[in-house]
Amino acid sequence: MKIIVTIVLVINILLGGQSMSLYNIKVKDIDGNEFTLEKYKNKVMLIVNVASKCGFTGQYEGLEKLHESYVDKGLAVLGFPCNQFLAQEPGTEDEIKEFCSLTFGVKFDMFSKIDVNGENTHELYKYLKSNSQGFMGTDIIKWNFTKFLIDKNGNIIKRYAPSTTPEQIEKDIVKLFH
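The structure assignment produced for this chain is given below.
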C-alpha cells in the first residue's frame, strides 16, 4: 500500500500537482495571445487542424455554419492551422486570418500555426492523439481537417476523418447539448 501511495505522490509532483487535463494545455490564438483551454470548460468543442490550400478547405464554410448555429448553445469551434501536409498552409498568422475572414467569413476561434505530428507536435495534439485513435488504431493525423469532438467535461467523444464534413458531424454535436 505504501508503494502505491508513493507512486501516486511522485506522479502528482511530476505533473506539478495537477492531473493532466485538456483544460491545462496552453494554446496561442492567431493574434499571439497565450492561454489555457480552461477558457472552453463547460463548452462542447470541435477541434480541427486546418489549411487554406487543401482540397478540404471548403469545409471552413461548414465549420462557420456550425459556429453560427450553436455558439449560443455552448459550441466552440477551434481551428489550428497546420503546414505539415504538402505545405498547404504556408502563410503567416495574419495572412491566414485575412484569408479565413475574407473568403469564408470565419468568426470561430483561430489559433497560431502548429505541428500535429512529429517531433514538434503541439501538446494539444499529443493529448488528442493519445486519447483517441484514428483509422486502424493509429494515432497519427493523416491530413488537414481531422476533427475531434469534445464534450462539456473535456472528454473526447469522437475523432473524425478529414473527409467527414461538418454537416455530417452536426447530429453528434447536437446530442451533447442535452
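Interim note for the steering committee: Residues 96 and 102 are 10 Å apart (CA to CA). The chain has a mean pLDDT of 87.
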